[in-house]
Amino acid sequence: MIDTHAHLDLPHFDEDRAEVVQRAREAGVEAIIMPAISPDGFPKARQLVEEYPELYRAVGIHPHAAADVGPQQLAAVEAEVGCPKVVAIGEIGLDYFYAERALPEQQQRVFREQIRLAKRCGLPIIVHNRNAHADVLRLLEEEQDGTLQGVLHCFSGDAAVLERALALGFHVSFTGNITYRKSAVAELVPLVPEDRLMVETDAPYMTPQPYRGKRNEPAFVRYVVERIAELTGRARERVVADTSRVARALFRLPLLLGAFCLSCLWAQGQQDSASGRHLYAKGLGFGLHGATNTIVELRRFVTGGDQTFSYEGVPAFGLHLFYEFHDYVAAELAYTYSRNTKVLKSPQRPWGQDRPDIYQVLELCAHVSPNPYGRVNFYGTLGGAALFNRINDQPENRVALVTGVGLRFNVLTSFGMLMPWMEWRLDFALGREEREVVLSLTERRRAEVGFYLSLPRVGLLWFPRW
Question: Residue 214: CB partners within 8 Å, gap ≥ 6?
């Protein structure tokens, strides 16, 4: 989930900001966009986005502060655009509910100047609109030249306002007000196309049910998502995926996140209110994998001397059972079959074998992930294996220590979760077996042979909805 509007720089969060951000991570919030009120808050905002990887900024002047805005303040906004993690101009717009703070004419002048700044800088705008629908739409229509993009945050208009906003190419964002029992805005949610819809909290304001009356925070954006799912008849997972995709595109988050994955590793997932687990929680899964097996033999000759010899590029494939019994820890039972034809006779190897060597590996391992709430997870593997090999047509059974490191991707679908993964795994056979090693047409030597398997592999697991 992406909370596209939260004022985490306000004093409301000074005492527990770190805990608020941590709760957002645990709830599955991968990014939070923090709009500005005035240039006075820019230094604090710069510090916060540096401190918290999931925070991004919008820079601008809120209509409440428009009365005192002159060229110096507008220049400060434009200068701030070049700072790291600035993704939009905002929060800007019109607010006639508090017209005593700034006259409508003053607000309109500042709004228009900042719209033009956004177009010069190629950034989207985040629009505040309260009791000013006609003038907000008029100014947007006058300034729309095909390059202006943005979102009407905390949408509060009617169907006609929505229709004009969408016709302008604008996005719409809803907050906790759609969870209220008598919300008229909730009726408009199904009218917004999936590629224009985003979610937000407007924290610390607009707290959703069931926490209405308390301070809002980004973790509560999941209640907005759940309400949208109810109103549109879409799966909650799909709402999460769609609204996050739209937000990334509008605010160009993939580029800023380094192709998205790297900075969301610790932040993405969602708390499931029914089960108490996060969005990417897994149960029992099944899958397949393929690998390129490198068999490394460590030979200690009975007559003296050592040799390391490897067979590279041996294909391998297998089956998987996977069960996650804790957010951070999962168990894996895997079977891998590998057939080494590189030992066979050939014109280049006339002393080779008549039959290939067969390696069958049954592994029982634990996976430990430091970031289980992510769409992308790092993990380490540790376990044991039973090896049922047939070497030169002779059985050779061993046990092995298994280690590995990998990366997996959680993909939500309507028929369960798919988890593509990639891993480099090493199976170290314990002990050595004595056997004859053929070195050439004329040389055969007895050796105690140990070995390990190096298995860079990829696979796909499916976790069905039980």
Answer: 207
The sheet with strand 171-174 has its strands ordered as 2-3, 31-34, 55-59, 86-95, 125-130, 150-152, 171-174, 197-199
Q: What is the pLDDT of residue 412?
A: 82
Check residue 273 and give its pLDDT.
35
Tokens of 104: 């409508």
CA–CA separation, 274 vs 192, rounded Å?
27
DSSP letter at 183 equals -
Domains of the chain by start residue, with CATH: 2-264 (3.20.20.140), 284-463 (2.40.160.20)
pTM over 0.70: no
**What pLDDT score was predicted for residue 269?**
39
Which regions in the chain score pLDDT beneath 70? 254-279, 466
Maximum Cα interatomic distance, the chain, rounded to a whole number of Å: 101
Using CA of residue 347, residue 353, residue 354, residue 355, what is the dihedral sign? negative
What pLDDT, on a 0 to 100 scale, did the predictor assign at position 93?
A: 97
Amino acid letter, 251: F
E-strand stretches of 267-375? 284-301, 306-324, 329-340, 357-368
**φ, ψ for residue 74 (rounded to 5)?**
-65, -35
Question: Smallest Cα–Cα separation from 7: which of 43, 28, 37?
Answer: 37
Instruction: Report the alpha-carbon angle 84-88-93, nearest 5.
Output: 140
Q: Is beta strand 411-413 parallel, antiparallel or unpaired with respect to 2-3?
A: unpaired
